[in-house]
Amino acid sequence: MTRQIDFAGKSGSVYRYSALEEERTLPPVGANYVIAQVTPKGASILFAGETECLSARDWQAALDEAHARYGETEVLTRLNVRSAVRKAEREDLIEEHCPPMNAG
Q1: pTM of the model
Q2: CB within 10 Å: which end of the chain, N or C, has fewer?
Q3: Three-state DSSP class for 102?
Q4: Which of 60, 21, 46, 30 is nearest to 99 (CA)?
Q5: Distances from the Cα of 4 to the Cαs of 16, 49, 75, 84, 102, in angstroms?
């Protein structure tokens, strides 16, 4: 079973993300994703993003950068078809967690 982690946004909304199984074929759908460090004490968001097509792997460059800067990291995803919903969720998470890789 895929591990799931809940992240709260600034609005108080809670979003459930699933660990990405990179060896699995990824669906060609819109999604939000976070790159996080996950430890037994919890998960820390390093980057929050969104994509029109999860299978295009446009999150890979950010994941590679996170590995180089922070060591062990992983991608967690949340399927979300509507672009406006994805963008609002991404902003909500950024406002609450201030991911260092999303900074200015």
Answers
A1: 0.93
A2: C
A3: helix
A4: 46
A5: 6, 17, 11, 23, 22
- Euclidean distance between CA atoms 55 and 28, whole angstroms: 5
- Which two tokens mark 59? 């999150």
- Two structure tokens written together for 10: 């600034």
List Cα–Cα distances, 65 to 26, 35, 81, 96, in angstroms: 21, 10, 26, 22
* Tens place of pLDDT per residue across the chain (104 aa): 568 999 999 999 999 999 987 677 888 999 999 999 999 899 999 999 999 999 999 999 999 999 999 999 999 999 987 999 999 999 999 999 999 999 86
H or E element that contains 29: none
DSSP 45-94: EEEEEEES-GGG-TTHHHHHHHHHHHSS-EEEEEE---HHHHHHHHHHHH
